[in-house]
Amino acid sequence: MADSSGTAKTAESRARGIRATGRRRKGPTRRRRALTITLCTLTSAALLGGAGLGYVYFKLNGNLKGVDINAALGHDRPKNIDDGSMNILVMGSDSRAGKNGEYGKDEGGARSDTAMIVHVYKGHKKASVVSVPRDTMIKRPDCAKDGKSVPGAQRAMFNTAFEVGGPACAVKTVESISDVRMDHFVEVDFTGFKKLIDALGGVDITTSKAIDDDHSHLHLQPGKHNLNGEQSLGLVRTRHGVPGGDGSDLGRIQLQQAFIKALMNQVKNVGVLTNPTKLYDIADTATKAITTDSELNSVSELTGLAKSLGNIGSENIDMVTLPVTYDPANPDRVVPLTKKSEQVWDALRVDKEIPKSAVKGSAGDQGGTDKYVK
Questions:
Q1: pTM above 0.85?
Q2: Helices then strands (H, E): number in the chain?
């Protein structure tokens, strides 16, 4: 990707036909388009919106919203490593404004209910996803929003960065704790997520235990289910209704990761490629549902990213949670395990797989809720 001064990719990248957003010359296959709605539940919404829909280019382009992250953050950022890999910060917004008010009181702001760093390895055949618990206590950097300075904090919940400074502050915070540069940003809210799942015709999952959570309005008996948008949102938000879970954000993250893989495995058989009307409906819904960085804020750029990532299936994605432990000062919060977290970030910086030792013993991978959903 070009950095904020517009520097282009190297000759090696150009020789492979990959642009800043990862575009390749070879046309998309069924499997490639499948990934465009499945890299993760949120990123997927963006990508399908750009896949093979030139005849409605201007309509879909008008749906998209973009944020110029590079202009907001300037040059004081981690090094832009030009090795063919890519990092995408994917966030789910928990704003209660407008139609999202049914999920809680609108207090005038939005926090990041879900945050995932998607690292696509050189060659674009596999990826790692690092989920950051929203309740992680971190040092938040100084930010700005609407032209006003927002002071940082020595000890703040991770998800407050999005609340006080929007997407640019969220990216700056991730980069400050990881020293890994984010190439792209994608955000979707509750309503957009629901509409996308409904447009897809739901998602098939199998539960081995009952899920019963009044907080997220989700009640499922053991067995096979086709979840609609409301139920899918309930599943990725539930913390209280899964046996074996600890009622924390950590258990919810494991459910989110299990749901994403179920979505990836199903999308190949949705049949949108032979149904132009359905494909358009999904693309229209997806492009209305998201906010991206300005470099992805067009159908053509999303198409390029979709083509680039099309060789990645669910079996080629490693999903982990940032290594954390419960905060001694507040058991409802978590703090990063410094050495183990650094193993994660070190791996991404040099485009290597995350070592198993990095997550061993972390509270983030002990919730056990993932085994109840597939």
A1: no
A2: 13, 17
